[in-house]
Write a structure and sequence with these properties.
By secondary structure, the chain is α/β, with parallel strands linked by helices. The protein contains seven helices and twelve strands.
Length: 245
């Protein structure tokens, strides 16, 4: 049976994999979750939107004769990762995760580790500060529980409805970002604290270096629990797996 790959994407690594399989002539489809208005065009056929849970994904895999799935979703897209794990097992489809190594604190970092969004909100109790919420548009509303702060939101798309945060600024920009740019952004908005998820990888790492350079504390949301599955950290590892399986 010839290979037909489904890439569950949205990350920088997923796009790199799409380019590689296109160059290699491997039949593949790229799937976006649909959380940005204008997703990046890929060099392979692409689809946008959910599958309808495990059952819907199983049906898709069978209908489209998918032989391999690469989960290259964001490390915090836990529900999709679990759905892929169970659907591939049910459909008898090979699964591999293209996983970004997590960031690790270095000398000069001031990280407060929290397990989830609720923990991040709780960590912001206290006097008014200027908070950089580097979280995308999801979960922004949760921080209305700490209304004393001014929040700086960096979003891929301008929000159609203003966030219910009493005091906030919106910066519309699409990564990857560089350290000099993030240092300038933090200075421009007089940021006191950075809140982010431990996404890992290099595409969103600039804010970590910028916070370190400026001596800013970071509220770091740790990664959720994900299923035990075959994992690779590079596009080359995925291509090798495809060649051997």
């Amino acid at each position: 049976m010839s290979t037909h790959l489904l890439i569950l994407g949205g990350t920088t690594e997923a796009s790199a994999l799409a380019r590689a399989v296109a160059e290699a002539g491997i039949p593949a489809t790229f799937s976006y979750a649909g959380r940005v208005d204008k997703p990046k065009t890929q060099p392979i056929p692409q689809r946008v939107g959910g599958f309808g849970g495990v059952a819907g994904l199983v049906a898709y895999l069978r209908e489209h004769n998918i032989t391999h799935v690469v989960d290259a979703t964001h490390p915090f897209a836990a529900q999709m990762s679990w759905n892929a794990f169970h659907a591939c097992a049910e459909a008898g489809v090979e699964l591999m995760a293209l996983t970004r190594p997590a960031w690790r604190a270095a000398a000069g970092d001031q990280w407060t580790h929290v397990p989830d969004i609720s923990g991040a909100v709780a960590a912001l109790e206290g006097a008014p500060k200027r908070i950089m919420l580097a979280l995308g548009r999801m979960h922004v509303e949760d921080f209305a529980a700490q209304p004393q702060h001014h929040y700086v939101l960096r979003l891929v798309d301008a929000p159609s409805v203003a966030p219910s945060l009493p005091s906030h600024s919106v910066v519309v920009a699409r990564g990857p970002f560089d350290v000099a740019g993030d240092i300038a952004l933090f200075k421009e908005h007089a940021v006191d604290i950075v809140v982010c998820k431990n996404a890992g990888g290099i595409g969103a790492e600039a804010k970590i270096h910028a916070a370190r350079a400026l001596g800013l504390p970071v509220v770091m949301i740790d990664r959720p629990a994900l299923p035990a599955r075959r994992e690779g950290a590079t596009v080359e590892a995925v291509l090798e797996w495809l060649a051997q399986s």
